[in-house]
Design brief:
Elements (H helix, E strand, L loop, with lengths): L6 H56 L8 E2 L11 E6 L4 E4 L15 E4 L3 E8 L4 E8 H16 L1 H20 L1 H12 L18 H50 L3 H31 L3 E7 L1 H15 L3 E4 L7 E4 L1 H18 L6 E5 L4 E6 L6 H4 L19 H11 L4 E4 L9 E6 L2
Parallel strand pairs: 1-3, 8-10
Antiparallel strand pairs: 2-3, 2-6, 4-5, 5-6, 7-9, 10-11, 11-13, 12-13
Helix pairs in contact: 1-2, 1-3, 5-6, 6-10, 7-8, 8-10
């Protein structure tokens, strides 16, 4: 499944990109306006410079002894001259020029007004009845540099704006989604058997209908499962008394009938009633495993519970059952004692019933709370392993049973928020069957 992006990350990145793109659009539009205003200002400055220099140049030229001689203005200090000028007569004879002028920039005959060449912006004007002309030139590269610097200054705030916007939007979105995140975590962290209503505080108006729908669904599911468990438990409980009475009558009938066909038939009826009574007991355990709380509020040592359950089985199977516990250390868990006892009984019963006859069944509890039950026997195919924890599903075996033992263990594991792991062959063996569960 393709990983999805969180709403917080999606909004933060999207809003930040939106702010950046909006800033770029505004800055681009502003740069055009700035370029227009800058060109207009520079053209005005160019005309002003030309008119100021021309008034001074006209006085200087008229006061010469030889007015037609070219004179160059001497620079007082070394400097880069961005604006150069050339003063000429009406026939184009140079009369005065700036110290760092390139005559190839100017046309052969003086021209009036603003215009642009391939490399310069020029302005020309005249004085004294169009007898003296001046042309002022400014390199276009200098203008482009000034315009580029203005545009860069407009984009420069993005260096600070992008991280600050991302941090600010991330914090604001996270703060705004606290209620949604709390609601999501409340659903994600609860166990599979917890169908209580999910509390949602400070939820946005768009999420409130979803939260209400989830709670309505949980409530309906809780009622449906409660009705199913109640029916299962009540049915199994109500069957116990008539089954016990019927079993007693069949036993009495077999005793009174004596040897013969009638006694054999009564024996088969007795066996069927015993299996039905066992099924009733399993159904009650299943209803309890699915309906009651599997976890408790405090930790307890579970080693004595395993001792008690194993001792019960040893009265009938003897040394065929072997228990291994951590030496000189308690194993703590928050699982309910009754639930652990039901879990262990069903797993041991399953191992004794379906394992190799007369072979030892190992019950091991490790220091980290892992419970392992291992029995000898043929390998269970992988396609059967995945279905063994389903109700009324049994492996290919001649042993009697209802197919509910592993289903009950799976229900308890789900309620405890852990996993029942089935392995065949058993770990470290060439055959056998192993069930392990990490107790919470």
């Amino acid at each position: 499944m393709k990983p999805t992006m969180s709403l917080q990350r999606r909004l933060s990145i999207g809003l930040t990109l939106g702010v950046v793109l909006l800033w770029l659009v505004v800055a681009t539009a502003t740069s055009f306006i700035v370029n227009y205003a800058l060109n207009k200002t520079l053209d005005s400055s160019l005309a002003e410079v030309a008119q100021r220099i021309l008034s001074l140049a006209a006085v200087e030229i008229l006061n010469r002894e030889t007015p037609d001689r070219l004179q160059q203005v001497v620079s007082l200090q070394p400097h880069d001259e961005y604006i150069t000028y050339l003063v000429r007569s009406a026939n184009g004879t140079p009369l005065l020029k700036s110290h760092d002028v390139d005559l190839s920039v100017f046309p052969k005959t003086p021209q009036l007004g603003l215009r642009s060449s391939a490399t310069h912006r020029l302005y020309g004007t005249s004085a004294i009845r169009d007898t003296i002309f001046i042309e002022v030139a400014e390199p276009l590269a200098a203008r482009s540099k000034a315009q580029w610097q203005a545009v860069m200054l407009l984009q420069l705030p993005l260096i600070i704006l992008i991280p600050l916007s991302l941090i600010g939007i991330w914090w604001f979105v996270k703060h705004s989604l606290n209620g949604v995140l709390a609601f999501s975590n409340a659903i994600e962290t609860r166990g599979a058997g917890d169908l209580s209503l999910v509390k949602g505080a400070s939820l946005p108006a768009e999420i409130v209908p979803i939260a209400e729908a989830v709670n309505h669904l949980l409530e309906r599911l809780h009622r449906a499962l409660a009705a199913e468990r109640s029916f299962t438990a009540n049915s199994a409980h109500e069957l116990r008394t008539p089954l016990a009475a019927a079993l007693a009558q069949v036993q009495r009938l077999r005793h009174e009938a004596g040897p013969g066909p009638l006694a054999q038939r009564a024996g088969r009826i007795e066996q069927a009633l015993r299996e039905l009574s066992l099924l009733s007991e399993k159904l009650m355990q299943l209803a309890k495993a699915e309906g009651s709380g599997v976890l408790i509020g405090k930790s307890q040592d579970i080693t004595h519970i395993l001792h008690h359950v194993v001792d019960e089985f040893r009265r009938t199977v003897g040394l065929r059952l072997r228990l291994s516990l951590p030496e000189a250390s308690a194993v703590l868990s928050i699982i309910d004692s009754d639930a652990l006892a039901i879990l262990t009984r069903n797993l041991i019963e399953n191992a004794l019933k379906h394992g190799a006859a007369e072979q030892v069944v190992d019950v091991e509890l490790t220091a980290d709370g892992t419970l392992r039950i291992v029995n000898a026997g043929p390998i269970v195919p992988a396609e059967e392993l995945v279905h063994l924890t389903e109700r009324f599903v049994r492996s290919t075996t001649r042993a009697s049973g209802s197919g509910l033992g592993l289903a009950i263990a799976q229900a308890i594991a789900n309620g405890a928020g852990t996993t029942l792991v089935l392995t065949s062959p058993a770990t470290g063996r060439e055959q056998g069957f192993e069930v392990s569960i990490k107790l919470p």
